[in-house]
Design a protein that fits this description.
This protein has helices at residues 6-23, 63-71, 118-134, 157-173, 187-190, 212-216, 228-232, 235-244; strands spanning 37-39, 53-57, 75-81, 84-86, 100-104, 107-113, 138-142, 177-181, 196-200, 221-225, 247-250, 261-262. The chain is α/β, with parallel strands linked by helices. It has one domain (6-262): Aldolase class I (TIM Barrel). Strand 2 (53-57), helix 2 (63-71) and strand 3 form a beta-alpha-beta unit.
Length: 265
């Protein structure tokens, strides 16, 4: 889908992640210095990859997977949608009908939500509570671009910025790092309050230069590409990613772990 003191803030969160990794008995590694990652949201999670970061589903991932990844010293980033209603989620009954908008383009079983709603924000705070309880080191809130989509609501860019900053502040209150998912137009306004970025297909659409503010701040940019040409020949893609300072994977669109091509392994 598509200015507090920065150095002190990054150091604080990096130290927290380092302590968490050591406490779980694994090799110390921090998300903020991570170079390798794996992103799998469906199917049985393949925990065999020797990477710094695993990005997995907040709700569906079994406790045993969380335990195994932390014991191995992996940083765990937990995915959830912060901008859409998914009827199969455990907390779906907490949303008000008035807060449900139009279906997402290409995802007819998901609907945009009104990010201005107090009810929506309370649900998101509960999801962040769950992330902290499950031992996530960071979170990846998806669908944080309502202002630039046909949602059924008249949401402005300023309202989107306010919501995204709300998510960042709420994550920090719970000791969680937070990644900005896509939302390229908002990067200049949000790079200071988000700790890393997750991007889909910036190479495909020639948009990767937009992540320079994250790279310049020393914040990881985790990029995934799905194009068949990258599967067939990833060499040029990987060379460009290294030049830009991105952590790039070529993955199946379903993010089911069926294959993985990594530029930094």
């Amino acid at each position: 889908m598509r200015r507090p003191a920065r150095s002190a803030l990054i150091a604080t969160f990096a130290l927290a992640l380092l302590s968490a990794a050591c406490a779980d008995g694994g090799e110390p590694a921090t998300l903020m210095s991570a170079r390798t990652w794996q992103w799998q949201l469906q199917g049985d999670i393949d925990t065999s990859h020797d990477v710094d970061v695993y990005d997995i589903d907040l709700f569906d991932t079994p406790d045993a997977v969380f335990d195994e990844l932390r014991a191995e010293g992996r940083n765990v980033v937990c995915y959830f949608s912060a901008g859409s209603f998914e009827e199969w989620r455990d907390d779906a009954d907490r949303f008000d009908l008035d807060d449900l908008g139009t279906p997402l383009d290409g995802w007819d079983d998901e609907r945009w939500i009104d990010i201005r709603s107090a009810t929506v924000r309370a649900v998101m705070e509960s999801r962040l509570d769950l992330a902290a309880e499950r031992g996530c080191h960071g979170v990846e809130p998806d669908n944080v671009t309502a202002f630039s989509n046909d949602t059924g609501f008249d949401i402005t860019a300023d309202e989107q910025l306010d919501y995204n900053r709300f998510l960042a502040a709420a994550a920090r209150e719970r000791g969680l790092l937070i990644g900005l998912k896509n939302a390229l137009d908002l990067i200049p306004d949000l790079v200071d309050v988000f700790d890393f970025a997750v991007n889909e297909q910036c190479h495909e659409y020639d948009e990767c230069d937009a992540y320079a503010p994250f790279v310049e701040d020393g914040k990881p940019v985790f990029n995934a590409e799905y194009g068949q040409r990258y599967v067939d020949d990833p060499a040029a893609l990987c060379a460009r990613s290294r030049e830009l300072g991105l952590r790039t994977l070529v993955l199946p669109l379903d993010l089911d772990g069926s294959f993985r091509i990594a530029c930094d392994d």
